[in-house]
Amino acid sequence: MAIRLLINPHVSFFGLSTYTEVHLHSEEGLVFSGLTRFGFMLPYMGNNASLGWAYTDNYGDHGDLYLEDLGESGATYRYGDDWFDVTVWVDTIGVKVGNRVKDRSLKYSKTRHGPILGVTRAGGPLAVRLAKFAEGGWFEQWYLMMRATSLEEWRGAMALLNVSYMNTMYADHAGNILYIYNHVIPRRSDAYNWSLPVDGSDPGTEWDGYHPLDELPQILNPASGYLQNTNSSPFTTTDDISIAAADYPSYMTGGEQDNRRAQRSRQVLRELRKLTLDDFSTAVWDTRLIAADEVLEHLFTSYDDIRNRNPDRVSSLAGPIGVLKDWNRVAAKNSVATTLFVLWAESVRPNLGFSTGDWVGGLSRVVQNLERRRGTWEVQWGDINRLQRPDASGILPFSDELPSLVVAGAPGWLGSVFTFSTRMSTSGNRYGIHGNSFVKVVEFTPEVQARSVFVFGQSNDPASDHYFDQAELYSAKEFKPAWFQRTETEKNARRTYTIRIPVGLK
To answer: What is the pTM of this model?
Structure first.
C-alpha cells in the first residue's frame, strides 16, 4: 500500500513570508526536497527518500503573563518572602525620521519571569515569559529530522522540542502515518487560571519544566487509514479518534475547533479508497463548500415564507434562488451559484459564523451590488475570483487592467480545501492574497514520487521566466513534477554550478 502525504501550508502570497522550493543533495548523504522561507538555512518541511512531514500552525499555551509586585522605587520586585533587584538595561536603536536614521536610547527592565512589556488597566507591571524563546535550536532539530530514515530516528529529533509550535503530520515508506500536536508546553500547576495574568510573587506559578513529546496529543496509524489537520483541533484529526481533550491539562491545547476545512477533509479522505497518485492529486484541490449544507435551507425557508405572504417583495430573487437550489455546492470557475453564495455568506456572517438575521435581505443586497457593478447578477465565479502578481512585495495595488487568471478556490471558512483568500478591488473583483501558497503531494513507493506547484513561481524577479510561470498550473489545479532523484534533477537542469566551502568553514 502506497503512503501519501499532502503538504499545503497557507501563508501570504506576498512579502517575506513567501516560500521557495529546495531540492537538496549533498555529497555527505543529505538528500531532501521541500520548502523554506527566504533567509532560512534549511528547508523545514518536505521529504527525503524514506519519510516526510508537513506543518500547520497550532495555538497551544506556551507563554504566560506575570503580574509583578514592584517596590516603591520600582528597582526591586517581590518573590515569595524575598525582594530581588529588577534588571535594567539600555539599548540604542536606529529610528527612521524622514530620510534620516536617528539613534534613540530606550530603557528596558525584566524580572526572573521575563521582560516587563506592559501594564494592567490599574497600572500593574506585566512580565512576559515564553517557552524556549531564547534557547534556539530550530535548525538543529530540522537537520536531524531531515537526516532521519525511520520513525524512531525522526521521533528522536522531534523529542528535542526546539521547534516550539506547529501541528506535524508525518508519513514514511514503512507505512506509518503520525500526527503530533507539536508544541513546547510548560508544565504548570492546575491551581491557577493560566489564561489570565498570574501572581509573579507566588512561587507556585513557576513552571516545572516542559511536557515531553510523549505527553503531547498524538495519533499513530489510526484504523481509519488517514490523518488530517487544517489548523483545527487535534481531537478531530481522523475518525473514531482515540484521544480527547479531557485526557490533557486544560492549557495543553488552544482554541482550535473542528473547522469546516477539517470536516470536509475528513469527508474527502473517507471516500478515497485504493486511490492512485493521480486521484490524490485531484482530491487535494477539492472546493466543495459544506457551509452551504448548513445555511442555505435557512435562506430558502425564509424566501418561501416571504413569497407566500408578499410575493412582490421577493420577485426579483426568483432567479438567484433557483440557481442556488440547483447548485451542487462546489465552487467552480463557471459557477454563478458560487458567486451568489460566497458573497451572500460573507454578507451575513459575524465572526466567521452565520447570523440568524435577514437571510433574504443579504441576498437582495448581493444581487443589487452585482447588477450595479456588472449589469447582471449572473456573474460566474471565475469572472471575479482572480490571481494576479503586481509585484513580489504586495505593495503595488491590484488592477483590473493588468493580466490575471481565473481561480476556483474559495474561502476556507466555507469549507473549501482549496483555500483562496482575497482582497476586493473597487470593481468588485477579488484578487488572491493568502491560502494555498505551495502545494505538494508525495507518494512513498520504492522510489519517491512527488508533484508540486507554487501559487506564482519560484522567482521574485519580475524579469524572470519563473516569476509567474506556475500560476497557470495553479489556476488549472495541476502540478509540475517535483524531481527527487539526482538523475532526474540533472536531466532537467537549466544550469548547474558548484559551490566549494573552505575547510575551515565546515
So the answer is: 0.92
